[in-house]
Every structure is written in C-alpha cells, then in structure tokens.
Amino acid sequence: MALEFAPLNIPFHRRLETLAVIQWWFTFLFLGLTSCIIFAYLFLFTSYYWVTLLAILWVIYDHKTPSRGGRRSGWLRRWKIWVHMRNFFPIQLVKTADLDPKKNYLLGFHPHGIMGVGAFVNFSTEATGFSERYTGITPYLLTLSGWFNFPVTRDYIMMSGLCDVSRDSIDYLLGQSGPGNAVIIVVGGATESLEAHPHNYAIYLTKRKGFIKKAIQHGACLVPVYSFGETDIFEQVANPEGSFLRNLQTRLTKMIGFAPPMFHGRGIFNYSVGFLPYRRPIYTVVGKPIPVEKSPTPSQEEIDKVHQMYIDSLKELFEENKTKYGVEPHEKLVII
C-alpha cells in the first residue's frame, strides 16, 4: 500500500483538529500508564516519594466518588479542544425527541466501535451541544471501573462527566441523586470492539439485560442510541468467528478484562496508516424514550419483555435513519 502524505499547506484549523484527536488518543491509550510510570519513578528514584504516597492515599480516600456522580466540570466539558475534535470527523448529535427533566433516563449506546469516540464527544463534552438540546438533563457516561484506579487520570476523566459503570453507580444516579439524569451505557462493552469493521452493523445485545433490569428497578425511561459511522473510523484486521485471531482475542479478553482489537487508521503526517482515526463522519442518533414501569424486584419475564421492547425500538431507530447517514437500504442491524 502506497503512503499518501499530507500536504504542507494544510489550513491551520485542520492541524488543530488533528492535535485535539492526538490528545484524546493519548489519554485513552496511555495516560493511565504514563501516570503510573511517573509516580513509580518519583517513589523509587527521587526524594519526592511522598508525592506518590499522597496520590495513592487520595485514590483510597476518594474511591467512592466515581460511583457517586463523579466530579464533573462544566469548564472542562466546554474546552475548545473538544470542538476541534468534533470537527475532525465531524461528529453530530441528532435529537429525535425531548427528554423530560422531571424523569431519569438510561441511554443504551450502540455500537462501541474501537474507542467509543461518539459516546465521549457527545456525552462527556459539550462540543455537540447536549445541554442546549436537552435542557435540564445531566449526562453521565459510564466506563470501566479500572480507569478510576489511576492517579490523576481518574480525576481528569471524572471532570468530563465519566463515572464508574458499577451497579452502585447506576443505583445512585437513577435512584438517589434526583431527577434529570441521563445515564449512558455502551451496552456492547469493550468486547463489541472486535466487531468494529467498516460497514458492519453487528451489536452485542441478546444477552445484555443487566441495564434493562436497572431501568425497571428505578422506573427510568430507556432510550436507544445508535451512532452511525462509529465503526468506520478505523480499519481492523479480519477476525471472523472461529479464526485463530478471534479465539486469541477472546482468550485475552477473559484474562485482562478488555478486548484487544488489531486496528489501524491514518497517521499524523499521512492519510494511509497510523493509529489516529480517519476523518469520517459520525452521526449519533438519540431515539425516543421508552416508558418503563418501576418494579424493585422485576421477574425474568418482565425483564425479557422490556428487553424485547428495547430491541424493537433500536431496530426501528436504525431503519428510520440508516439511509440518511450512509447505510445501504439492504443493510440490517444484526443483534448478537
């Protein structure tokens, strides 16, 4: 494959957009590891070992905050860098219905993609205007608990509105912190990233019923969300079910807790190969809320019934919008 290099006379705003994505990419992949290395160095090789001890004590003391609404910062969520990141692709938030601030909502985000770019930009920043579109609604994007064990990194991501995806966190946001909350869960989880191939519309949902149970327990409205283009911004090595690579990835997922996709995108100075995403549009469509009757101890029959309602609503959302956002008419949403 011949490399296509970026020209030297690129407009300055496009360089800013690339820089914004580099910052996010580094945070996603390396900020946690980098913070650990820095604190280990301070502890082992300098006289500032006490800084590391203070950081560890802070993580221990503050361990409940990620499951108690976090520590969001409107200032950070409105950083100009997120606007540049939005414009890189670009990313657009599409509203199809109002959300009543007197109620709580549980939004199921699909698909995960390689890095969940659409979920972050739309719900952990104000780059696409969530607060303006959904007045009185506070979004909380939930992510893996392990993120909140890294000093400094944990506080940085909490400022964007990220919280722990634990049961305690969901119970607090939907049941103890009042109305007007929108909890966003990437239902397919990191394992779904193994399905993130361009023009592939497969999501993990058949056995994912825990979020349905939580919605019923708290009487929170369910809202399906489909992010068109989420799987198009990277190219992933072919890994069909039953292949050696997929079996290895599945085994590693069980060992380390997250899926290790083999992917590439574009580079900083070329358009052909690298680890930055391609400049391809993402349209995140937020569907209509599904009313859910509250039941503190729902039966399996109740959970299955609401789960099917959710699947039907998600399929309808996909069918109604697919041709608007680059999906061929014959393509169908595949539920795994």
UniProtKB/TrEMBL annotation:
<dbReference type="GO" id="GO:0004144">
    <property type="term" value="F:diacylglycerol O-acyltransferase activity"/>
</dbReference>
<keyword id="KW-0444">Lipid biosynthesis</keyword>
<keyword id="KW-0472">Membrane</keyword>
<protein>
    <recommendedName>
        <fullName>Acyltransferase</fullName>
        <ecNumber>2.3.1.-</ecNumber>
    </recommendedName>
</protein>
<dbReference type="GO" id="GO:0019432">
    <property type="term" value="P:triglyceride biosynthetic process"/>
</dbReference>
<keyword id="KW-1133">Transmembrane helix</keyword>
<feature type="transmembrane region" description="Helical">
    <location>
        <begin position="47"/>
        <end position="63"/>
    </location>
</feature>
<keyword id="KW-0012">Acyltransferase</keyword>
<dbReference type="InterPro" id="IPR007130">
    <property type="entry name" value="DAGAT"/>
</dbReference>
<keyword id="KW-0808">Transferase</keyword>
<keyword id="KW-0256">Endoplasmic reticulum</keyword>
<feature type="transmembrane region" description="Helical">
    <location>
        <begin position="21"/>
        <end position="41"/>
    </location>
</feature>
<dbReference type="GO" id="GO:0005789">
    <property type="term" value="C:endoplasmic reticulum membrane"/>
</dbReference>
<keyword id="KW-0443">Lipid metabolism</keyword>
<dbReference type="Pfam" id="PF03982">
    <property type="entry name" value="DAGAT"/>
</dbReference>
<keyword id="KW-0812">Transmembrane</keyword>
<comment type="similarity">
    <text>Belongs to the diacylglycerol acyltransferase family.</text>
</comment>
